[in-house]
Amino acid sequence: MDENKAAARRLYEEVFGRGNLAAADEIMAPECVSHGPGTPPNVGSEQIKRQALVLRGAFPDLRAILHDQIAEGDRVASRWEGAGTFTGTFPMGAEPLSGDGRSITFAEIRIDRFAGGKIVESWFIPDRMSLWQRLGLIR
User: What is the pLDDT of residues 71-85, one digit of tens each?
Assistant: First the structure.
């Protein structure tokens, strides 16, 4: 279980926090299935790499802060927060938002299922509402 928790931690700290996209392929199995709210399941690590690129493009100083982890059996639940300064661009429709120097935080809860030392399935719930409010997209 400790190895699984460490691998899940790497996902936040290395992929999101440091922008080391290659680490996603070390942590996630090629056939990994990710389930997010309102979207069809994604297979593989490309979607999480794209998400990290988008977030790091908008918040170049992005820090990933892991608040909680609970492991049981083959699953690890993590609650993490991203924090950074909005100095880049955030793609939103036809017109990307330009950074204005605001400090931004957002949160996510994720459950990862492991097999053979790698993530093979994930369920995640990002707090998009808070992120969009902080970006000024909704009030």
Answer: 999 999 999 999 999
